[in-house]
Structure formats: C-alpha cells, structure tokens
Amino acid sequence: MTETATNGNSPDAGAGQPAQGSRSRRARSGAGQSTTSAGLRLERLFTTPGVHPYDEVTWERRDVVMTNWRDGSINFEQRGVEFPDFWSVNATNIVTSKYFRGAVGTPVRESSLRQLIDRVVLTYTRAGTEHGYFAGEEDREVFEHELTWMLLHQVFAFNSPVWFNVGTASPQQVSACFILSVDDTMDSILNWYREEGLIFKGGSGAGLNLSRIRSSKELLSSGGTASGPVSFMRGADASAGTIKSGGATRRAAKMVVLDVDHPDIAEFVETKAKEEHKIRALRDAGFDMDLGGDDIVSVQYQNANNSVRVSDEFMRAVEGAGPNGTDFGLRSRMTGEVIETVDAADLFGKITQAAWECADPGIQYDDTINDWHTSPESGRINASNPCSEYMHLDNSSCNLASLNLLKFLSDDGVFQAERFAKAVEFVITAMDISICFADFPTEPITETTRAFRQLGIGYANLGALLMATGHAYDSEGGRSLAAAITSLMQASAYGRSAELAAAVGAYEGYARNAEAHKRVIRKHAAANDQIRVLHTNDAVALKLATAAWARTVELGQQHGYRNAQASVLAPTGTIGLMMDCDTTGVEPDLALVKFKKLVGGGSMQIVNQTVPRALKALGYQDEQVEAVVEYIAEHGHVVDAPGLRREHYEVFDCAMGERSIAPMGHVRMMAAIQPFISGAISKTVNMPEDASVADVAEIYQQGWKMGLKALAIYRDNCKVGQPLSAAGKNKTTQQTPVEPAAPAPVAAAPVHTGPVRRRLPKKRPSQTVSFTVGGAEGYLTTGSYPDDGLGEVFIKLGKQGSTLAGVMDAFSIAVSVGLQYGIPLESYVAKFTNLRFEPAGMTDDPDVRIATSVMDYLFRRIALDYLPVDKRAELGIFSAEERSAHLDNTYGGGSSSAQEEVVEELRTSVDATPVVRPAVEQGGSGVQPGAAEGTATDPVVAPAPSSGLAPVAAPAGRAGSSTELLELVIGKSADAPLCFTCGTKMRPSGACYVCEGCGSTSGCS
C-alpha cells in the first residue's frame, strides 16, 4: 500500500517527520490501538466480533405525522419508518423529516435508520480504505462497526450537512461552518455576496471580517469618499434575507466582524441598535414588526450577528492603562496610520450600550484568539463562523461532530473517562476521513480546508451530566469536571491526529507552522496542569488527560499533526435532538420541566429525567425523590421543596425560571473549558431584563480577563421583534380595511373626543379578601358595577399612617380611577403579575399558592374573581378548581387502557432503554383522536412512579415546546423566535436557536 496524504503532499511532508523507515514502526496509543505506515490498527470498544450492531437491538415500525400544533396542519408525514425501540418519538420525527433522503412516497425514499447510517458510515469506510487509513480488513470492519454502534446508540452525531449530503447524488458537503474574506475592491465585495449566497443555499452559515474595506472617512483613488463597510452590509443583509426566505434545508446564518480600530467602528456598533429604535417606532405606528411579520423586512441588518474584534491594547485603554491613558487610535485601512483618536472608554460604552439595547454586537478577543493560533505563518485569524465557535484562516471550513456526554455516565454515577477517550479517537478519525472526499462551495475554501484539515469535535449534554452527578453548573466542582473532560477530549483528539500524521501524513500547512502548532499543544498541556480536582470523576478524567497530553506532545514531536484544529463547542441544535440530549452544547438545563411527545400522538409535560437521577446522586431515598419531583411538577422549581436541603438548591439551577444561573456563572464555565478547545464556544450569556449597561461592560471585561475568545450577551426582552401567540398577534396586528369616504362638500369641524369616566353608584357590590404573602398580612377590597365589571380597588397593607400604607392607598386610587376611565382590567393584570420583590413566597390562597410579590398575588386574585376564563387563559391564570376540572374532563372519562398507556409511557421514559410502542400497534395511523402528532395535549393526572418522574400540571393554556411550557410555568414571555417551518417557539441552543418540533435551527448544528 502506498502511503500518501490525500492533500497531495509527500509522505514526509511537515517538519519533524522522520524518514519512511522510522515511520513504519508501531506507536501504541493510550486506547490500546496502534498505527503503522500502512494505516491504523484498531481495537473494538462497544461492539462484539461476529455480531453486527443492528442485530443487537430491537427494531420497530412507526408512523411519523408532524403537525403545526397551533392549527393542526400537517407539516410532514411518512408512515412505517423503522427505528430502534429505544429512540424517542422526537428523535424519530426529526431524523425522518430532516435527514432521510429521497422524495416522500417514492421507492427511493429512505425509510429506516439503518439506511441512513449505512449511507454515511459506508461512505466514510470506503474513503478510509481508499486513502490508507486502515492497516487491514479487520481494522476496516472494526471502524465500520464501532461508528455504526455509536450512531445507532446516540453516542455521537455528525453535523447536519453530513446527514444531508453524504452518500447522495448531491455535492458531498460535510462542513457546517465557513469563514470567507473580502478585500477593498468592488470585485471582491460582489464576490462576497455570491459566495455567501452559495453557502446559504446549501443550508450552512458563513462569517467574515470587513476590516480591509476602506472607511467612509478615507478617499478613493478617483478622489471621492469611500462608502465604508457598513454601506455594503446592507446589500449582503438583503441577499441573506432573500435566500433565507427561499427555504433551503435551514435558515441562512451569518457573522459580520469589524476590528475595533476601524474608523467606522462607531457606525458599525450602532447599526442594529438604531434599527431597533426604528422597529419600536414602526410598531407603535401599527406596523407588524414581530419576528417573521409582514413589515419586519423593512428593517436592515437583521440577518447577521455582529461582533467587534477588540485587541488587548484597546481593553487596556478602556481601563485607562494604555500608553496614552484612554486615548485609542483608529487607523487607515490603506496606510495603517492613525487618522482619528477616540476615548476608548467612550467607545467601549457605545459597544456595551448597543449590546444592552439589542444584544449586538458581541465581542471577539483578537489577541487571545491569535495567541492560540496553530498556523500563524499562513495568516491571522480574522473572523468566525456565525455562532462564533469556529475560528481559523480566511476562506476555510470546519466539519463538526459532538459526543453525548450522558452516554458515558454509568448508573452508579461514574463517568467512564477511558471509554470516552477511545470514542473520541474513533470520531476524530471519521471526521478527518470526510475531508478526503468532501466537496466545498468555492475553490479557495477547498484549497484551504484540504491544506489545513480543520475539525471540530465537541460534546453535548454537559448541563445534564453535571446535574446528574450532583454538581451545580455554577460551582467549582462543576467547572472542574467540565474542564477535565474537555481536556481529555482535546488531548485524545490531537493524540489521534498525531497518529494519523504518522499513518497518512501531516496537514499540508504543518511544515510552515510546526513550531507554532507545537507551542499551542504545550499551552493546552500546561492549562491541563492548572486544573484542580474536587471529586472522583474529575480526578480520574484529569489523570487520563495528563497522560494523554504527555503522549500527544511526544507523538507530535515525532510525526506532526494531521489537523490544524481539532475541537470546537457548537450549539448541537438538531443533532442534540437526534441524540435525545437534555441539554445542548455547553449549556445548562433550560428548565426543570420538559415538553415530551408521546407515542401515537399528543404530548405531555414531565419533570426532566435528570432530576431524579441527580437527587439519588445526592443521597436522597426513593420516597424523598418522589416528593421533590412532585413538588417540581407543581411549581416548576425546587425552592421550598419538601425534604430538599437548601445547599442542594444550586444543583437544580437552570438557564431560565426560578433560581436562574447568574450571568457570571456562564462566563466562569466558559473560562474553565476554553483552554482545551481549538476554536471557541458557541454560547450566549443570558442577562435579566433589569441588568444595566454597567453589568454588560463587566461581563465583556471579565471575558477578556478570563481568557475567552468570544462572548455575546442577551438581555431579556431587549428586542421588540419577538413573536406573540397566534391570538395575541391577531389582536395586535389585524387591521380592518376602511373604505375611502366620499369627499364632503364642506369640511367638517374637528370633533375632539377623550376618555369618559364611568363613576360607580353610591351603593355597589363589593367583597373583601384577607391574604398572606410570605408572612405579610393584608386585605383586598374590590367594588364592582351593578351590571358587573370591576370599578375600584382598595388595598390595606401595613400599619395605618405608615409610608407603605399611604403608598398602597395612592396606588389603589390610581388603579380605581383608571378602571373607571375604561382601562381594561387585563392590562393591569398583565403589567402587575410576575413583579418580583419582597415580601414574596407562599400564600394562604389555594388558587395562588406562590406569589413573586404582593402585587403579583393581588392581581392574580383580582383576575380570578373578575376576568372570564378565556382572557385568563391568555394570561396563564386558572383557579385550582378549574385546573382540576380541566384534567378530569380530559382524562377522567377516558378508557382505562388509555390511562394505563399514559402511565406506562411515564414509567418507561426514564429507563435506559424505554419501551416505545410502535405506531402500528395503535391502530395504524399512530395518531390519537383529537391529538395529532406534534400537537400539545393537556397535562396528565397520574401517580408519580417510583422512578421519580411526574407529570407537570401546566398552569394554563397549551404549549408546543419546552420554551412555551416554561413560559406557562413562570408566567413570563421568553425571547425566542418562532420556527419558520412549523411555528413552534424555538429554544436557545448555544448562540443559536433550535426547534423541538421539527429540528430546524438558526445556525450550526
């Protein structure tokens, strides 16, 4: 077998590689595998010799019918698809609708997971054989079986383009992330539009840095003034919006970066913030400015994420520690000379103000990024992909794959670190093989990717893993475990990359960058030595990582490396759903309650499966676990849960809801794992609505000091263009057309109208309610009109003559007068519920058990007494009797077999291999009467099984996703877009969003 590298370089290409004779010597790996000059020798990890992975599982046929849960229309239908019995309904739906190839209803349409996996795995195996990756036939079979087993059992997944394209007649595009470049010429700018369009058409995203383009403060050779990069962003934004609307495999995603020393930086920083002001004005004028609304297309710059590339010099100047204090020079793009001096603190203030207003721009830390650059002799790192996790040379791409961390946690809570490291080696090998046969959208990207072979292995389910092992996300123990696992992944990936270099050659650009690459490897290894372990799992992982780094450094000295980059932490949106992950990427859990689809149609809300596992890891007995889970099912959080110790509350902190993780907790987690990632981390730091501009500035400054490469924030409710419910949207946007009136012969005098006060009669019905909120006692007296309708409110709280009593009297008068002037009661309820301040907590009202403040309780009580149920449903307010009756009406009259199915579904959903009934056993259609697949049904009343799983009695309304369920539980709208495919509200996934209904994403997966 001739040993040649697939990029055309000689076998000995790359500095530090020994002669052919010495390369034929076997180098044993830490995973018990070896390499020779003829390829890799592989040993089995999950599989059994002589047994195919498909023969080890039970297969069943299912019907996939996906509908828009709001109107019941069918989005997708394919019946009789074949999947293992332990795959969830959601994973089945998403893989069938997103990844099966061939026209639906034709014989060429894929109908089995076997076909999908074989299409990909056999293509990889053939390419590996052709390019000399395997030492022999036995090694080829081991590779094929191990890859098949891991995909079959949801241990890992390739990024979406692999499933879209590999093994089909389409171009074999395997990369999800692209970085482009643009120069200061019109030809280059127009080519930028073209290249972006091609990438968007294929369902991927791209990023680029516009800093080479002359600013609007510089002259053209003709004597005129340059347009500046911001002007050209308009054309690119319109192009992206048009292609996105065309509806390819998923929405277009893009990133635009500008250096902080560009003379147009202030204009760039404020572009989206100014557009947000425009959105507000247009909305107030009656235009439909919701995301996806008819009029939102008139707003510019909405199709890209914007980031400012800041330098260490600039950040020091912000703190007044620059060579000229806070003075900072903006430089000409042509000569590099300073053409304007600005105050760095003032410019930084504009950046943080804009981010506070509309979440853009994010920050990329240029010096940190390039300090970890493995190929600096071939060019700087100037930009990133849309989600900010892939960072490397211009005109390059990266294919991604992610491992499901929870698959490596045993039932007794032990993280199987050695097995994890071996799995990483198999996955990184497959990822590198893909570059041998992959197609790319442009010739420059083809050349760069084949020359540098950038890979992006990562993981998902970190948040679930930490909770399941009893670690708080924002804790030293949690960060220690995350860092040790990430370090082990990076060491194993680069170790295999060095073995591949010995077998099939280092990457073409390695010779020129050998010293820089080895320096970065040593930086990773040094960072590994700084990890401080606190528990058994992180200690074991760190020990293996330390040994792996020593071996990786040694192998790299001998053979070089096959890949310029090895890892990123991507959002894992669609593929996270494919693997049935509870959490995506590096994210914590979204909330403690979860939206679950049922076999045969319909859905229900349950407490996350990780919760009972975490309680058992913390030492709680089955009875205690059941009590806590039941409490979470009712309240959506753990505060005051029976028997749960307060020191354990933090283990159950989530991204949203009660006890949400503090913004700096997200930053600290990113800082713990960033030293062990080749690229960066796709993650948005969520901030509460009441966060200040100074809070944003602190996040951005700490991100720089902690060594992050990129950082973006999102302040709750900072954007106007957020989707409303269907009902709400119709109310706010529907306009009745008015026929033009005939011209009057004489202009009529203007008629001035205004609100008219409707006073209460002298004698009117009223009621008084005594209440207790968090230990504070008070009285609520309400008076109504004789023909119904609330007309006055009196609140007695605090001692007579006290300031509090006086304020409450004044507040009562203001509300009463407003009601009499015609302000709808529901407007008051919407404004004053969910206010959060002390006193707060438990109440003595059976209809409102917990209140976030006295105001929250009072207006919920008023709504229950005076608003009809349909209006309260929109506000998420029901009485205890109504909730009980609602559940009884839904399930009380049903057949016992139907109820047993629901209970059985609950019991099996927490098993390692739950039994999922095939659709053909439920009447063929697989859709229960009145509950099409993808629609939301009401919560189920069933006793909590011994596993600790319990159904959640949703407080009101209907939900179509976990985000919408969370909104019902916390009574607060979540800033997430509606899915363009099925209309379901998406949930955060890294710096992007993913739809739980159909798997669509807004960025990389």
Q: What summary fits the major beta sheet?
A: 10 strands, mixed
Q: What low-confidence regions span 5 or more consecutive residues with pLDDT below 50?
A: 1-36, 245-250, 722-753, 890-956
What's the total number of strands?
26
What amount of the residues lies in strands?
Answer: 5-15%
Q: Mean pLDDT across all residues, rounded?
A: 83
The helix-and-strand class reads alpha/beta
Total domain count: 4
- The separation of the N and C termini measures 37 Å
Number of helices: 30
Share in helix: 25-40%
Q: Label the overall shape.
A: globular
Radius of gyration (CA) equals 30 Å
Summarize it:
By secondary structure, the chain is α/β, with parallel strands linked by helices.
Structural description of this entry:
With 1005 residues, the protein is of the alpha/beta class. The protein has 4 domains: 20-173 and 385-575, no CATH class; 181-219 and 227-378, Anaerobic Ribonucleotide-triphosphate Reductase Large Chain (Alpha-Beta Barrel), CATH 3.20.70.20; 590-657 and 884-954, no CATH class; 766-877, no CATH class. Helix content is 38%, strand content 14%. It contains 30 helices and 26 strands. The strands form 8 sheets. Strands 6, 7, 8, 9, 10, 13, 14, 15, 18 and 19 form a 10-stranded mixed β-sheet that branches. Strand 9 (253-259), helix 8 and strand 10 form a beta-alpha-beta unit. Helix 15 packs parallel to helix 17. The longest helix is centred in the middle third of the chain and has 29 residues, at 476-504. It is globular and about 100 Å long. Mean pLDDT is 83; it is low at 1-36, 245-250, 722-753 and 890-956. Residues 64-154 form the Ribonucleotide reductase class II vitamin B12-dependent N-terminal domain. It is an enzyme of class 1 (oxidoreductase). Pfam families: Ribonuc_red_2_N, Ribonuc_red_lgC, TSCPD. Residues 175-714 form the Ribonucleotide reductase large subunit C-terminal domain. Keywords: Cobalamin, Cobalt, Disulfide bond, DNA synthesis, Nucleotide-binding, Oxidoreductase.
